[in-house]
């Protein structure tokens, strides 16, 4: 029987489970389906006049699209990281690594996170869990960023996942103090990132008070990381708790809606599956939309060419919806007319 407590085994499990079909939310959705963009029959521009570029962390993306936090720590993960980062670089998109905890605890796995040779210009997000980061010095964290050439660091917040994970953490105190320290001392920007349960307005205000200016909402409605850990549970009690919390979290669209007036740069991940989801998230106030599981599935089905074709389609749909809403720029898309459904409006602060 595989050791569920081993970090390399955990990474292998996560890849296999996320590429499957039984880790999605059962009933809760992203609520992005409750964002209707208003059609403009007179866009008054050529399709080529659409400028989908966006500035993030000192780099220009050709479209407001990020391949969200992926993987690392195993040879299979290395191939996925390198090929998807290469495609993101080719298409002018952002790319996020999986948690670098494995890289810190087992330096021999560091190579599985390194993608700069394949993607020298990509906007690259490093990744580390808040609980793990509390145990590390700023210099150690900066070294993890430097080794991979990260342009920014995601500090992921995942209490729901941890409490059901075999050997997961239980002490979530001191997170704001850590974020204050990293914002002040790290040489790269810090992104506060959830892992499938969303960020509330109250948490957004706390993050802002700690100096955080960039967030990834990673809301409910896509992959449930509680569900992932339910499949990995080592006893009936843990499995029962995870089963009951399977649908826990704030829907992605609701999280964007809650945070959009706080002056934060918002990346919307969590259940985005297609270009129309990205466009809706941006129209709500996000600067970019991120996709993870569907990119992984496209890569698993068709390799690097499959991932490239999928992401090209995502970008093409975003550009098409910009034209069809009369949005010449991403800023125009953020301001475009939209109609929100009742369930999403109920989340409005």
Could you describe the 3D structure shown?
- With 349 residues, the protein is an alpha/beta fold.
- The chain has one domain: TIM Barrel.
- Helix content is 44%, strand content 13%.
- It has helices at residues 7-18, 75-91, 101-105, 130-134, 138-148, 159-164, 175-185, 201-209, 225-232, 236-244, 252-259, 275-284, 293-324, 330-335, 342-345; strands at residues 35-37, 54-56, 59-61, 65-67, 94-96, 123-129, 152-157, 190-194, 214-216, 265-268, 288-291, 338-340.
- Helix 2 (75-91) packs parallel to helix 13, helix 9 packs antiparallel against helix 10 and helix 12 packs across helix 13 (293-324).
- The N and C termini lie far apart (48 Å).
User: What's the pLDDT, averaged over the residues?
Assistant: 92
Shape descriptor reads: globular
The proportion of residues in beta strands is: 5-15%
What is the number of E strands?
A: 12
Name given to the CATH homologous superfamily: Aldolase class I
Computed over alpha carbons, the radius of gyration is 19 Å
Helix/strand-derived class? alpha/beta
The separation of the N and C termini measures 48 Å
